[in-house]
Design goal:
With 150 residues, the chain is α+β, with helices and mostly antiparallel strands. The protein has a single domain (33-142), classed as Alpha-Beta Plaits. 27% of the residues lie in helices and 13% in strands. It contains six helices and five strands. The chain has helices spanning 2-17, 52-56, 87-91, 117-121, 132-136, 140-144, and strands at 40-42, 62-66, 72-78, 97-99, 114-115. The strands form two sheets. It has a three-stranded antiparallel beta sheet with strand order 2-3-5. It has a two-stranded antiparallel sheet with strand order 1-4. The relative contact order is 0.18. The protein binds iron/sulfur cluster (2 copies). One iron/sulfur cluster binds at residues 47-53, 64, 91-92, 94, 96-97. One iron/sulfur cluster is lined by residues 47-53, 64, 91-92, 94, 96-97.
Length: 150
């Protein structure tokens, strides 16, 4: 009972303060946490086609096709089924796949949610001033030095 009264008091406190937490999206851009995990950005230049991201992904969101001698031929990410668990980003040894803060995914069909490497390469960071990987891993520079993956 005390817990219910406490939660009601908290609700009333915020309701009466006049503070708003919602924005009129899409006219207004919402604030996104620096650590938010959004749509992936892929760099063909950085990728060494080791396929670790594909192996670690728990639900086959990533599909890679390689040719002779581990040359990359195709990188597809089914963004509609991604769990945003970030395992692919963590396992990648060269930071070729990074989750941006971009949450804007729109499609009419399921096929449109299969992003190829060109589409993944064109995903915007949402806010250029915030480095999402550095925000999620504040000790990263000490470990790896200053890595310019962007
Ligand atoms: S974030 Fe998780 S589910 Fe999504 S592609 Fe990466 S490993 Fe797969
Ligand atoms: S783990 Fe990184 S380098 Fe390896 S295939 Fe995936 S994106 Fe490319």
């Amino acid at each position: 009972m005390i817990g219910v009264l406490e939660s009601m008091a908290t609700t009333m406190k915020h309701a009466l303060s006049g503070e708003t937490f919602t924005v009129a999206y899409p006219e207004e851009e919402p604030e996104v946490s620096p650590r938010f995990r959004g749509v992936h950005r892929f760099s063909r230049e950085r990728c060494i086609w080791c396929r670790q991201c594909e192996s670690v992904c728990p639900n086959n969101t990533i599909q890679i096709v390689t040719g002779e001698g581990r040359t990359g031929e195709q990188y597809t990410l089914q963004i509609g089924q991604c769990l945003y668990c970030r395992l692919c980003e963590e396992v990648c040894p060269v930071e070729a796949i990074v989750l941006t803060r971009n949450f804007e995914v729109v499609a009419d069909t399921r096929a449109e949610l299969a992003y190829d490497e060109d589409e993944l390469g064109a995903v915007s960071w949402y806010d250029e001033d915030i480095d999402p990987l550095a925000a999620r891993e504040p000790d990263r520079e000490a470990r790896d030095g200053d890595v310019d993956y962007r």
